[in-house]
Amino acid sequence: MHANIENAQPIYAALFISDLHLQQSHPKTTEAFFDFLRRHAMCSRQLYILGDLFESWAGDDDINSAFHRKVVRALRELSDSGIEIHWIAGNRDFLVGEGFARATGMILLPDPYIAVIAGRRIALTHGDAQCIDDQAYVDFRSKVRNPEWQKQFLAMPLEQRKSIIEGMRKESRKAQYAKTDSIMDVSPAAIAMLFEQTGTSIIIHGHTHRPARHEYASGSSKCNRYVLPDWEYDSDPVRGGWIAIGQDGLIRQFGADGFELPSS
Ligand SMILES: [Mn+2]
Q1: Please, which residues bridge with residue 165 across strands?
Q2: From ligand 1's centre to the CA of 261, what distance in Å?
């Protein structure tokens, strides 16, 4: 009985998503995420969340809001089904900590992280650490990623933290108008350095919301940098998608409609 189910092999070795920016005011995006978990992540051995799953995260003591509990329950269902969930923090949800990891059953990874999937070594990163041409952002990042700053911040009452984060978001939106497109993208020098430091020929990252596959020649071999899309199902046209690595090691890019992109 049920032999076909018990013997079923996962279709994919790993799936990668980032920049869903989940928030209560975007219910269709949240529903698209739950749908993705049920229909696609369930057919994979591993799921890698590469940052900015949430639009903001004020600390693990905010885990009990009705919205956050729904997200936790969906991730827990996946990990309880035996699918490994791996997490790299983004610039919006870097305060996700051990409490959230325990509740969802996921594994927190450092940034960058070298994963070996279907025999391929792959460097995984959110991508904001490679945006080194934006000096104001580099300064901001080094401040808020400092453990001492985080300790002091997390010692504040939750409501105060939420209003500080809201203020930061307004400032950052204002500052972005004055920045050029290239300054907000990853720096070619930082990408070259990441390839060299990790000794990999594949990078997967998000953050820039510029989904693509970039190919680089490196001596006689080739390197590839895959950029994940952001998700937005509450506006028209919708945006979204993911990257999958098959058991055969092949890397495929999928769009918001769930179909494979022809260019990958
Ligand atoms: Mn980001």
Answers
A1: none
A2: 23
Alpha-carbon distance of 245 to 115, in angstroms, equals: 12
Q: Kindly give the distance from the C-alpha atom of residue 130 to the centroid of ligand 1, in angstroms, as a whole number.
A: 11
Q: How far is the CA of 89 from the centre of ligand 1 (A)?
A: 9
Per the domain annotation, does 6 fall within a domain?
Answer: no
Instruction: Supply the angle between the helices 135-144 and 147-154 in degrees, to the nearest 10.
Output: 60
Indicate whether 193 belongs to any domain: yes
CATH (domain of 227): 3.60.21.10
Please write the tens of the pLDDT for every residue from 121-144. 999 999 999 999 999 999 999 999
Below-50 pLDDT ranges, the chain: 1-4
Q: Helix crossing, 147-154 with 158-177: angle to 10°? A: 130
Q: How far apart are the CA of 127 and the centre of ligand 1, in A?
A: 7
pTM of the model: 0.94
| Beta-sheet strands, E only, within 118-250 | 120-125, 202-205, 212-218, 221-227, 241-246
**pLDDT of amino acid 1:** 45
The tally of domains found in the chain comes to 1
Q: How far is the CA of 238 from the centre of ligand 1 (A)?
A: 18
